[in-house]
Design goal:
Number of helices: 12
Strand content: under 5%
Number of strands: 0
Structural class: mainly alpha
Length: 399
């Protein structure tokens, strides 16, 4: 068998001032996930039940996992290399098929979604194994381990697509369990062992910036929902106020993440002696919760704009308060993981939302949403000062 040689031009340069910079093709690639997030929020709105919520949660986990694993691969491979670009274009095509299948993933499009998701994950990882050749043995063996786990979960994704109802739900649940369990086990494979945090040499600045861009993708859905829904409404005092509250809520979500969470995360992962450990624990898992909470936020915005002064339904109250609560909790967990610090502003915001929940049924959707946004704005302002103090720590090597 011919020897596969190391291809240095395919790899990102380490230690350069712009080595963490996100390329234009990565931004282009992200457009597929803009569409996917839109599909997720619309699917939940069209099936606003506990079953619909479960389906959306599972599909959100799959979409995030596909994007996240690709981010890890592009952390090592240079998107400027032509074969890597072709790989990304191919993933975009497969991802478009996957995204178009989301609304009927638990219906007639289940097999399309299962095959597209498995092909996306397995194909990208197999390409990375081949691209790394023999020049990066540690990363290559790590990706071989990942490929084994993705093939295993892919069997359940495809098998689930051939089944219906509860059987599909069960098989896809097993597939997600395999996908999300694997990193915590170091992708252990018989005979070749498991990976350790020290094995994952990542560019911390690139990982932090890519995670932030996915948050922008998710927040973009809230902007699209707010604009599109308001555009079709009659202009009156209630709809205009609902529009302003929705917009203010999206801005406050941006402010909380980028002025507090992202700033803290970037500071600690860049100065970490084991960036792979932080990347796996903080960016891989907690950003799923952040993305899910923003999808819920988009749903809450559409419910608010549709019925700003209507009777408060239990489901609407849960989404209006649940989305900011999950968002604050996710940011709080992230900050705890990366800095080992208790985020007092976020905890206080959660307590305030809990108090609001006691009066939720007595308020209109507009009043409840406005109160929740007021809490988010307060956390955003307080959080900015909190992160400024935390990031003035000496840039020592954190563990």
């Amino acid at each position: 068998m011919a020897r596969v040689h190391h291809r240095p031009e395919w790899f990102r340069s380490r230690g350069l001032s712009d080595s963490g910079k996100v390329s234009f093709i990565e931004l282009f690639f992200d457009l597929i996930f803009v569409f996917a997030v839109t599909q997720l929020s619309h699917s939940l709105l069209e099936n606003f039940t506990w079953t619909g919520a479960l389906h959306t949660a599972m599909l959100t986990m799959a979409v995030w996992w596909a994007w996240n694993y690709t981010t890890w691969v592009i952390n090592w491979l240079s998107p400027d290399a032509l074969p890597v670009r072709i790989m990304l274009f191919s993933l975009m095509l497969i991802g478009l098929i996957m995204s178009t299948s989301i609304p009927e993933a638990f219906g007639h499009a289940g097999l399309y979604f299962g095959i597209a998701y498995a092909a996306f994950q397995i194909g990208r990882t197999a390409f990375a194994v081949w691209a790394l050749g023999h020049g990066a043995p540690v990363n290559r063996i790590n990706l071989v381990r990942i490929l084994c786990w993705l093939i295993l979960s892919g069997v359940f994704w495809i098998a689930g697509g051939t089944q219906e109802d509860e059987v599909r739900l069960l098989l896809w649940g097993v597939a997600l369990f395999i996908d999300y369990l694997a990193p915590s086990l170091g992708f252990w494979v018989p005979r070749i062992g498991r990976s350790t945090a020290e094995d994952w040499a990542v560019e911390g600045a690139h990982m932090a910036e890519r995670a932030g861009l996915f948050i922008i993708i998710a927040l973009g859905e809230s902007i699209l929902v707010t604009g599109a829904t308001f555009g079709g409404l009659e202009r009156n005092m209630e709809t205009v106020l609902a529009f302003l509250v929705s917009f203010a809520g999206t801005v406050s979500l941006w402010w909380i993440y980028f002025e507090t969470t992202s700033r803290i995360g970037h500071h600690y992962i860049v100065n970490s002696s084991v960036p792979g450990q932080l990347a796996r624990a903080a960016y891989t898992y907690t950003h799923l919760l952040l993305a899910a909470s923003i999808v819920l936020s988009a749903v809450a915005d559409e419910l608010l704009l549709a019925h700003p002064a209507g009777h408060m339904e239990t489901g609407a109250a849960l989404v209006i308060l649940g989305s900011p609560a999950l968002y604050l909790l996710s940011n709080m967990i992230f900050i705890r993981i990366v800095s080992r610090t208790f985020a007092v502003p976020h905890a206080t915001g959660l307590a305030a939302l809990a108090v609001l929940a006691l009066f939720a049924r007595e308020l209109t959707p507009l009043a409840l949403s406005a109160a929740a946004v007021f809490v988010l704005v307060a956390v955003a302002v307080w959080g900015s000062r909190f992160s400024s103090r935390l990031c003035t720590l000496a840039p020592e090597r954190h563990h």
